[in-house]
Structure formats: structure tokens, C-alpha cells
Design goal:
Number of strands: 5
Oligomer: single chain
CATH topology of the largest domain: Heat Shock Protein 90
Structural class: alpha+beta
Shape: rod-shaped
Number of helices: 10
Strand content: 5-15%
CATH class of the largest domain: Alpha Beta
Number of domains: 2
Largest sheet: 5 strands, mixed
Distance between the termini: 34 Å
CATH superfamily of the largest domain: Histidine kinase-like ATPase, C-terminal domain
Strand order of the largest sheet: 1-2-3-5-4
Length: 338
């Protein structure tokens, strides 16, 4: 820890007051000797007024200099709505060692809160993915199998009914409905936890998502994903996939865009991705204040995922000129050494 230097505010106040009192005592003695004809009471009253004025001015100067950094520190604390590593607290600017100790303790507390917040967010997202897997397995193993069995029974029943009867048409309609429900359920299961992500990796899962969810909507997505020999860590791979999913979903639902470009680049130190579109754009400052907007929730989810991995998010958007989201996530140390 850095060695603290300088005197505390209390020491400064005591020193100044002692110096003023000593000066006043010397001055009072000189006045009494210099003007023996003046009444001692008058000299004492003048001495009292001078001493009070001088002590007040001296204390004001000392305390103003001491409390100025503390007021700036209080403004900094008031501006912090959550632990943020990009909001440093200027402890070096505190002249008083006691105040500097408070600032350093507060900075250390913020650092701990930031670490705990990222760890908590990572655990929350990990729990969400585990719950997605569980629900997906149950839907696949139970509900999908039940619908498939019902579909087989309808196929058997259809063969025993007169093709010209109304019952045949009703069974055929019910079979089509079950086919549609089974297809939607399989799509939902893949959305909950795409097995392609676990089996083949990030790039095939992203391509599958674009082909099955976005192309039919009229949104043309151009993908540029680096091919790497080594798979990313599962947690990071899942996070990047969800960020891509949320970003492109926002483009589809809110941007009114016809084209989007996705870049994913992996280096030995980090993973970077960007999603840009030619949509209507928005004002990022206005969106940040409108916390109840659906698109704002999407960006908030992206930020929380990225910050849980100690990454950064930058959003560029201009009205009627599109939006670009840039994400940078550092690779874990074990992944770098690999």
C-alpha cells in the first residue's frame, strides 16, 4: 500500500489555532506596553475581536482546502449508480490522509462490488442456460414424443375412415395442426438450447439461427465469422451466441432494416463481434432513459452478459442511418495458454 504523507486536517486546525493564539498573546503584550494609557478593557475587547476574526479566517482557509476534494468525492459517489471500473476515484488528489484513507477504502469497496457483481451475473446466466437445457430436454423427451405418438394415431385412424366423409377432413386437419405444433415445438427446443452449439460450435449455430429465424422475415444477414481450430470455452461460446441472437433479434423487431452485417473475430487474447444494420436508428441517450422499452431491455441484457465476462459494449446509432453494436470480450487465461 502506498505510504501516506502529510498532516491530517485536525492537526492543521490545531496548529493554526495555536499559532494564532500565540501571535495574539504576543500582540496583546506589545499593545499593553506600547499604549499604557489605554484602558486594559478596551485593549482586551480589541484583542478579542481581532483574534476571533483571524482564527475564523485561518480556519476557513484550512477547512476549505481540506473539504474541497471531499466535496468532489461526494459528487463522484452521487454519480455512481452501479460499480463501474471506468469511474476512478481520485484518491491521490486528497491532501488529508484521513480523507484519502476513506476514498481508498471506498474505491476498494467499489472494486469488490464490481467483481462480485460480475461473478453474480455470470452465475445467473449459467443458471438460466441450465434451466433452458432442462426445459428443452423435457419438451423433447415428453411433449414432443407425445405429439409424435398422437400424430401416428391420427395417421392410423385416417386410414380407417371413409375419404369422402366429414370425419376424414377433420382428422386430416387435426393431423396438419399437430404437424405444425410439432415443428414449432422442435424450433422452441432448439431456441432454448441449440444442440448445434454444443455439438459443432459457434459458427454453425449462428448460421442455423440466421437461416431458420431471420431469412424468412425479409432481413438479409451477411455473416463474417473467423474459422478457428480450437473451440471457445463453453461459457464464452454460449454468451457470444446469445449476444448475437439478441442483437439480430433487436434488428428484426425494432430497426425496420433490410440488411444486417455480423462480424465475429477471435484472436489469442479476445473475441470481438459487431452487428450493424441499415435501419431507422435511435438516440442511445434517450433509449438509456427509457428503461421500460423492449429494445432497451435487449441492450441491457447484452451489456450484462458482456460485463459478466469483463468485456465492453459500444453502441453507435444515428437516426435513419442505422445502428452498430461492438462487443469486445477478453479470453480467459486458460484459453489463452491453450
Amino acid at each position: 500500500m502506498r505510504k501516506r504523507s502529510g498532516r491530517s486536517t485536525l492537526q492543521k486546525v490545531v496548529t493554526v489555532n495555536a499559532a494564532v493564539i500565540l501571535f495574539g498573546a504576543v500582540l496583546d503584550t506589545l499593545l499593553v506596553r506600547r499604549f499604557p494609557q489605554v484602558s486594559p478593557g478596551l485593549i482586551a475587547g480589541a484583542y478579542f475581536l481581532i483574534m476571533v476574526s483571524v482564527m475564523a479566517a485561518a480556519n476557513y482557509l484550512v477547512l476549505r482546502n481540506a473539504f474541497r476534494p471531499l466535496l468532489e468525492f461526494s459528487h463522484t459517489m452521487a454519480s455512481i449508480s452501479r460499480p463501474a471500473k471506468d469511474q476512478p476515484i481520485p484518491a491521490e488528489e486528497m491532501p488529508d490522509p484521513d480523507f484519502r484513507s476513506v476514498v481508498e477504502s471506498f474505491s476498494a469497496m467499489l472494486d469488490r462490488m464490481a467483481l462480485e457483481s460480475r461473478a453474480y451475473s455470470a452465475k445467473v446466466f449459467e443458471s438460466i442456460e441450465d434451466e433452458r437445457r432442462r426445459i428443452g430436454r423435457e419438451l423433447h423427451d415428453d411433449t414432443s414424443q407425445s405429439l409424435a405418438a398422437a400424430l401416428l394415431n391420427l395417421d392410423v385412424a385416417e386410414k380407417t375412415i371413409d375419404p369422402d366423409s366429414a370425419s376424414f377432413e377433420q382428422v386430416a386437419a387435426a393431423r396438419d395442426i399437430l404437424h405444425h405444433c410439432l415443428g414449432q415445438l422442435r424450433l422452441l427446443v432448439y431456441d432454448l438450447r441449440p444442440s448445434m452449439l454444443d455439438d459443432f460450435g459457434l459458427a454453425p449455430a449462428v448460421h442455423w439461427y440466421v437461416d431458420t429465424h431471420l431469412q424468412a422475415s425479409g432481413l438479409r444477414v451477411v455473416t463474417d465469422i473467423d474459422s478457428v481450430e480450437e473451440r471457445l470455452p463453453p461459457t464464452l461460446e454460449t454468451a457470444v451466441y446469445r449476444i448475437v441472437q439478441e442483437s439480430l433479434s433487436n434488428v428484426q423487431r425494432h430497426a425496420h432494416a433490410t440488411r444486417a452485417i455480423l462480424h465475429i473475430n477471435t484472436t489469442p487474447d479476445h473475441v470481438s463481434l459487431s452487428v450493424s444494420d441499415n435501419g431507422i436508428g435511435f438516440d442511445p441517450a434517450t433509449l438509456a432513459r427509457a428503461s421500460n422499452g423492449h429494445s432497451g431491455v435487449g441492450l441491457l441484457s447484452i451489456r450484462e452478459r458482456v460485463e459478466a465476462l469483463d468485456g465492453s459494449v459500444t453502441v453507435y446509432s444515428v437516426r435513419d442511418r442505422g445502428t452498430q453494436i461492438q462487443v469486445l470480450i477478453p479470453l480467459p487465461a486458460e484459453a489463452r495458454s491453450a
